[in-house]
User: Which sequence fits this backbone?
């Protein structure tokens, strides 16, 4: 089967529940922003920033290590068992520690009166992390239908509970209720996964191979460092925005309002990350499966061309139709943050390209380079935010994100060409990225003060023009048969 078609098919199957879930969560933005004021929404956003940190640490790179060792070891069951037991042990220890020290943790996070947030958060991340390995096993076995079903049911439960709790039980006079309802809905939805994967838990053999575990942990450790540093780049801006704003003399209420406004606008930039999440589910096992293909580099190059074209298209689609997309944020009190959306969209374009490139250090086993890149990126993220948030507020967060992802993209490319060369087509990269940025500039050069239908038609004409550029450069319909023989 044509490898590119296989990847596209797997991206659609594995990504469908992810895309659906992200889109439905995207549709929850008007619900949450309508019922919750920016300050309460800021609390939710900050808590989920911490979730992102914890999930990276508590999965400990075992998904990627599982895929890597599955292709190398004869005993597939042993590889899964060791990965699974490692995650169970790590998360059990974490959850017990949080239960023991939840009040001091709440005090440090400035949630002294709501230590229940900390307990709910710990339960959510522990359950999701433990469930990640059985789900990775389904991906490795190409049981796409079961994987999609489990993810879809969990997502549906989360959405349904959000709707019921917020519409019928939420009292706007008690904004903390909204935070609790969102966390409770997530916890129940997370429990759906182990419930539907119960056979993996019941049939688990508790015999642990220490030698294999050490081998896998050595492989995974740089990935954990890279992932942890990567999450700093993705989410720490909301945490820093809160604490730096408070330390700059503002009230805690004002700081949380800024976090809420920024986070709501960040959601509008998530269409690129929705595509990226779906793509990542299929791409990682696919890239490893192609590692022994003598024409693998042709596959990787062709995939990169199409990927860059797609993410640049989404950048234009959202940024040039921001007057439409902004209505997903129901409360106009949040619209102050819309100016960060194009910046964050472009940042996520760079992130997607970096992820595509990162396969070179995973395939070659040189995962230390991923850690180096991410650590430098994390240092830059923290430094830029600390320096510029006091003066520029959440705009500093957006520009820092874009700058760091651009750095990581370039650094990964240069290191990859030295240690595991894949001769990507830079001409096409610059054509797709450059044409999308130029068309974005053209849209803003014309001053449509009246807005309305004229602006809508003109901007979407520019988007169609970009699509025309893509077809002129790639001509995918005419190259279809040639593509199959090339790769």
Assistant:
């Amino acid at each position: 089967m044509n490898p590119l078609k296989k990847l596209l098919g797997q991206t659609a199957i594995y990504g469908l529940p992810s895309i659906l879930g992200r889109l439905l969560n995207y549709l929850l933005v008007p619900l949450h922003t309508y019922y919750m004021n920016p300050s309460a929404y800021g609390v939710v956003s900050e808590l989920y920033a911490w979730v992102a940190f914890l999930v990276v640490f508590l999965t400990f790179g075992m998904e990627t290590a599982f895929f890597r060792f599955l292709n190398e070891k004869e005993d597939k069951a042993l590889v899964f068992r060791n990965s699974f037991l490692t995650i169970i042990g790590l998360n059990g220890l974490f959850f017990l520690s949080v239960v023991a020290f939840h009040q001091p943790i709440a005090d440090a996070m400035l949630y002294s009166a709501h230590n229940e947030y900390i307990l709910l958060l710990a339960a959510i991340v522990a359950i999701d992390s433990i469930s990640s390995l059985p789900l990775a096993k389904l991906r490795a076995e190409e049981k796409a239908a079961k994987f999609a079903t489990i993810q879809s049911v969990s997502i549906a439960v989360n959405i349904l509970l959000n709707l019921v709790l917020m519409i019928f039980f939420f009292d706007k006079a008690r904004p903390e209720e909204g935070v609790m309802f969102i966390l409770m809905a997530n916890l129940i939805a997370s429990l759906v996964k182990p419930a539907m994967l119960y056979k993996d838990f019941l049939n688990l053999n508790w015999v642990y191979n220490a030698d294999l575990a050490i081998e896998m942990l050595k492989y995974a450790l740089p990935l954990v460092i890279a992932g942890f540093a990567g999450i700093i780049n993705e989410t720490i801006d909301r945490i820093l925005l809160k604490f730096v704003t408070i330390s700059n003399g503002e009230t805690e209420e004002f700081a949380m309002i800024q976090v809420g406004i920024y986070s709501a606008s960040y959601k509008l930039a998530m269409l690129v990350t929705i595509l990226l999440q779906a793509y990542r589910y299929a791409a990682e096992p696919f890239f490893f499966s192609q590692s022994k293909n003598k024409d693998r580099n042709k596959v990787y190059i062709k995939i990169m061309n199409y990927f860059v074209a797609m993410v640049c298209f989404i950048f234009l689609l959202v940024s040039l139709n921001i007057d439409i997309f902004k209505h997903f944020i129901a409360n106009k009190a949040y619209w102050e943050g819309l100016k960060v959306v194009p910046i964050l969209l472009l940042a996520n374009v760079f992130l997607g390209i970096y992820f595509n490139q990162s396969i070179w250090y995973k395939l070659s086993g040189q995962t230390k380079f991923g850690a180096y890149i991410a650590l430098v990126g994390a240092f830059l993220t923290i430094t830029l935010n600390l320096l510029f948030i006091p003066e520029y507020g959440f705009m500093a967060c957006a520009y820092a994100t874009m700058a760091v992802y651009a750095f990581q993209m370039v650094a990964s490319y240069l290191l990859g060409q030295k240690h595991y060369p894949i001769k990507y087509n830079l001409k096409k990269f610059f054509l797709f990225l450059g044409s999308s940025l130029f068309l974005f500039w053209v849209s803003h050069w014309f001053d449509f003060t009246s807005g309305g239908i004229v602006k809508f038609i003109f901007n979407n004409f520019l988007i169609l023009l970009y699509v025309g550029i893509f077809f002129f450069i790639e001509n995918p319909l005419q190259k279809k048969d040639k593509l199959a023989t090339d790769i």
In short: The chain has a mean pLDDT of 85. The chain has one domain: 3-486. DSSP finds 20 helices and no strands in the chain.
